[in-house]
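User: Can you help me understand a structure? I only have the sequence.
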Amino acid sequence: MRSHRFLAGAVALAATVALAACGGSSETEETAAGDSSASFPITVEHAFGTTTIEEKPERVATVAWANHEVPLALGIVPVGMAKANFGDDDGDGVLPWVDAKLKELGGTTPVLFDENDGIDFEAVADTNPDVILAAYSGLTQEDYDTLTKIAPVVAFPKAAWATAWRDTIKLESKALGLAAQGDALIADIEKQMADATGKYPQLAGKSAMFMTHIDPTDLSKIGFYTTHDTRAQFFTDLGMTVPGSIGELSAGTDKFALTQSAEQIQVFDDVDIIVAYGDDQLLAAAQADPLLSKIPAIKRGSVVMLSGATPLGTAANPTPLAISYVLDDYVAMLAEAADKVS
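Assistant: Let's start by predicting it. Here is the structure, written out as tokens:
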């Protein structure tokens, strides 16, 4: 973790000097000029307590995965946001749906925080934010305490990396004084999902699980996302169901991912469709494995393989802007897998 010696100086400086925006601005577009019902101060509850935001934020910074998508969707360009480190196929640190929104808003790319080694607290402080959004994140208590020395922080409500996309929008739009606009955004996304899935009635009621990265050199166990992870939750948004096996294995834990021994792989006999990160070669290896091949979904090939190095693989983890960007393609792939279920 980086040294925190900068914090005292950074906070003192922020109190006396308004730093120039580095690469982005968080001015609100006319379409999101403010929630007429919102009045500050606003208090937001989260896993680390409560955060009170005294005045409407003008300079918005975000840390961790995808939190910048909420202000962008509401017409606000953050002053700083996390650099994309997964699915960034062109290497510019900005995923395509984010780039498209920045261009739509006429904004320049914000400061990109490199989080490969953890949160870059100094870089965050240098953007002089009024608020830091992290409703979908894995903040530790130490992370949270350090960030609060820079600006008020909106952390996750219950567990790390388990905030559903709707809750992320609700928490962060409230903090920005745009709760009504946040509700409208949720309604719009829900309509898009209903329209997309309405084209594929074969999806309705099918059970689905999402496997994590599988090691082709060691198929003695597999990883899977629990019901606490947004990837698994996304299936129910698309009219599908959670397999009883996943529900039972998820009960009693707040972890977003677990592993299962291949020797007990029959537990997944109730799964209709599997989504996994990998390619056709990995699927072939699983189908050739004496244990994994016993999973009905793998045996019949009702599997969607996604490359995590591509935007589509990234967007299977639903976020406010990514959902619209990949929805039609993702639903079509799930429907193709559903066609193989007898």
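Now, to help you interpret it: Residues 1-33 have pLDDT under 50 and may be disordered. The domain at 6-194 is CATH 3.40.50.1980 (Rossmann fold). Let me know which part you'd like to focus on.
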